[in-house]
Amino acid sequence: MPGLSPLISGTIKVAIDKSGEGGSQNVDVDLTSARLDIPWAGWSKGPGIAANATFTMTKSGDTTTLSDFDLDGKSFSVEGNVVLVKGALSSARFSKVALNRGDDVAVTVKRSGKGFAVDVSGNALDARSLIKQFTSDVDTATKTTGTDAVSVSADVNSLSGFHDEVLSNLKLDYSAAGSRVNRLKVSAAASSGAAITISNTAGNGARALTMKSADAGAILRFLNIYEHMEGGSITLALSGAADGPMRGQVDSSNFFIVNEPKLASIVSTTPTGDSRSLNEAVKGKIDTSRVKFERGFTEIDKGSGYLKLANGVLRGPRIGTTFQGTLYDQNNNMDMTGTFMPAYGLNRIFGELPLVGALLGNGRDRGLIGVTYRLKGNANKPVLDINPLSVIAPGIFRSIFEYR
Question: pTM for the complete prediction?
Answer without folding.
Answer: 0.77
